[in-house]
Amino acid sequence: MPTNHNPKVDPGRVLALIMGGGQGTRLYPLTRERAKPAVPIAGKYRLVDIPISNCINSGVRRIYVLTQFLSASLHRHVYGSFKFDHFSQGFVEILAAEQTMTDSSWYQGTADAVRKNLIHLRNNDFDYALILSGDQLYRMDFRELLRHHLEREAEVTIATKPVSRPEAPAFGIMQIDAAQRIVRFEEKPREPALLDQLRVDPATQQTLNIPSTGESFLASMGIYLFNRDVLTHALDNDLTDFGKHIIPRLIHERRVFSYCFQGYWEDVGTIRSFFEANLDLASELPRFNLFDMTAPIYSRPRFLPPSKINGASLDHTVVSDGCILNHCKISQSVVGLRYLVDAGSHITRTVILGADFYESAESIAAHAAAGQPRIGIGRNTRIDSAIIEKNARIGDNCVITPHGKPPSVDHPPLYYIRDGIVIIPKNAVVPHGTII
Question: What distance in Å separates the CA atoms of residue 414 and residue 392, rounded to the nearest whole number?
Answer without folding.
Answer: 10
